[in-house]
Amino acid sequence: MSAEQHLRILDVTRSTNDEALSRARGGAPHGTAVAARRQTAGRGRRGHAWESPDGNLYLSVVLRPQVTPTRLPGLAAACGLGVLDALDAFGISNETQLKWPNDLLARGLKLAGILVETARDDAGQTFAVCGVGLNVGRAPRGLGAICLAALGDAPSFSPLAESLRSGVVSRVNAWAAASGERPLDGIRSDYLTRLAWLGEKVRVLAAEGGSELACGTLETVDPWGRAVVAGVPYASELVSLRPTG
């Protein structure tokens, strides 16, 4: 299947994740993707609205990795590394890092967000959709964000969209083929190499309400995908991290 058959590009849609979920339920194969220049009802983690202005890139990829359920929580980390691989190919990822568990930062500001959703298709098979919102020409105001244009020349839309699609698929394929039964087996070393705030002091905030639960050094992310702060592991479903500076 050609790149054009794998990737459909739209000017505007409600949500690329919804488009990809619909296609996947109908049997769309692994690696099928939808990209758009604008979303009218984009969403992020925990159902939050995702600001999706024109001038950026919104991409969702159908993924059907053959892994056990215990490994599936590592999919978002593999996707994040795939996005970095795509940016590496354009020579623009020197300043980019992964923010646990699902964002990309550049110069300490948000460059992209990743949302992974799982569902079952019409044949009863489990699949996932990885959604990527990448700030290309515009950074949403007031959100501590940055865009590729601020880092240098931004690539044109179609080549960038295909590079993101292929980068995510390649990383997911390698992750799925790795041995081990823990979520980050096969990618943890690469993940830690690109992890923001590693070895630095961070605040641990409750997912519900945002109250501060702890403050300490981000020591690592363990093989199960939990952030370890001051010796305590935290699951991404329950907390988020913020720098103290």
UniProtKB/TrEMBL annotation:
Annotated Gene3D superfamilies: Bira Bifunctional Protein, Domain 2
SUPFAM superfamilies, per database record: Class II aaRS and biotin synthetases
Residue span of region Disordered: 18-49
UniProt KW keywords: Ligase
GO cellular component: cytoplasm
InterPro entries for this protein: aa-tRNA-synth_II/BPL/LPL (IPR045864), Biotin_CoA_COase_ligase (IPR004408), BPL_LPL_catalytic (IPR004143)
EC number from the UniProt entry: 6.3.4.15
GO MF assignments: biotin--[biotin carboxyl-carrier protein] ligase activity
Domain BPL/LPL catalytic: 1-180
Start-end of Low complexity biased regions: 31-42
NCBIfam families: birA_ligase (TIGR00121)
PANTHER family noted in UniProt: BIOTIN PROTEIN LIGASE (PTHR12835), BIOTIN--PROTEIN LIGASE (PTHR12835:SF5)
Full protein name: Biotin--[acetyl-CoA-carboxylase] ligase
